[in-house]
Amino acid sequence: MTGPASRTVAGSRVEETAHSLETSGARLHYWTAGAADRPGIALTHGAGADHRMFDPQIPALVDAGYRTLRWDVRYHGASASGTGRFRTVHAADDLAALLDAAGMPRPVVLLGQSMGGNIAQEYLRRRPEEVSALVVIGSTSSTLPITRREQRRLALSRLLMRLVPFGPADPVDGAGVGDDSGSPGVSARGVRGERAAFLPHHLVRHDPRDRPFPRLPRGEARAAALR
Fold first, then answer.
1. Are 122 and 128 within 8 A, CB to CB?
2. Which residues are within 8 A (CB) of 152 and not within 5 positions of it... i.e. 6 or more apart?
């Protein structure tokens, strides 16, 4: 794990600390803000995005009394991986490792958007005692059958991702070093390169029917989502 470096969240006076962690064949970058004794909330972005999608939320959450942790999921933004095919179960393990590294006591609130919502649901399924609340934004249920319409949309997304241009990304400068884009440790051009390189790898090769965990009975699934 590399040493932390601080920066101010864009448009606010909130100080956020950048970190990176080597775990399970990946180098993950994550950012924390807020006092260590405050209740924690971990924010996970959707596919093709990175931690910056939560820029507007961090100051509000810190002002509300939370300690925040947001991160770049492996193959996204500044986070790299050499493990091959992406799986939700691996990402949930990554999140647990980051919470440990950050010294964030459980239980925590998990917030996830799209793919991040599925990662948060997987974390809850495997570690329910570590989650105080679950916030899922624009994500399918990981424990209930998806509709035919959702299946068609997932299949279409795989096709569309074949059209995304991608190439070598610019080198990542190191966690915590700011630049003109406002993103610590990554140039704007570099983020786009990392993101484009990820999209075909994850969405084109990933089979929507390949779920890394069994479905729960409908009643149990609803109870888990309300914990």
1. no
2. none
Confidence class of residue 92 from pLDDT cuts 50, 70 and 90?
Answer: very high
Instruction: Classify 13 as helix, strand or coil.
Output: coil
C-alpha–C-alpha distance, residues 134 and 112, integer Å: 8
Nearest C-alpha neighbor of 39 from the set 4, 70, 8, 69: 69
Contact between 158 and 203 under an 8 Å Cβ cutoff? The reply is yes
Report the DSSP pairing between strands 108-113 and 67-71.
Answer: unpaired
Q: Report how far residue 166's alpha carbon sits from residue 152's, in angstroms, rounded to the nearest whole number.
A: 25
Q: How far is the C-alpha of 109 from the C-alpha of 106, rounded, in Å?
A: 9
Rounded to whole angstroms, the Cα distance separating 109 from 129 reads 11
Asked if 74 contacts 224 with a C-beta cutoff of 8 angstroms, the reply is no
Mapped onto helix, strand or coil, the DSSP state of residue 71 is strand
State the chain's maximal CA–CA distance in angstroms: 49
DSSP 129-180: GGEEEEEEES---SSSPPPHHHHHHHHHHHHHHTTS---PPPPP--TT---T
Q: What is the pLDDT of residues 114-150, one digit of tens each?
A: 999 999 999 999 999 999 999 999 988 887 787 888 7
